[in-house]
């Protein structure tokens, strides 16, 4: 599932939700956000919407269903479109 989101004063970005199907055990969900540029990502981090969304969660334990959180930064090397 992919959805494209428009934020005020910030360039478009794409959120991809990937769910790894498993037969037994816990499913793995990966959320990937791709920004138009690193500068746009930095604008989002400093935006009022981002700050407000995280402010209320400081000091709270993560929900039980979240086993692990990893944050990584990748650079896109190649994009191919099937036209």
Automatic annotation (TrEMBL):
Species of provenance: Shimazuella alba
SUPFAM superfamilies: Dimeric alpha+beta barrel
Name under which the protein is recorded: ABM domain-containing protein
InterPro entries: ABM_dom, Dimeric_a/b-barrel
Domain ABM span(s) in chain numbering: 24-51
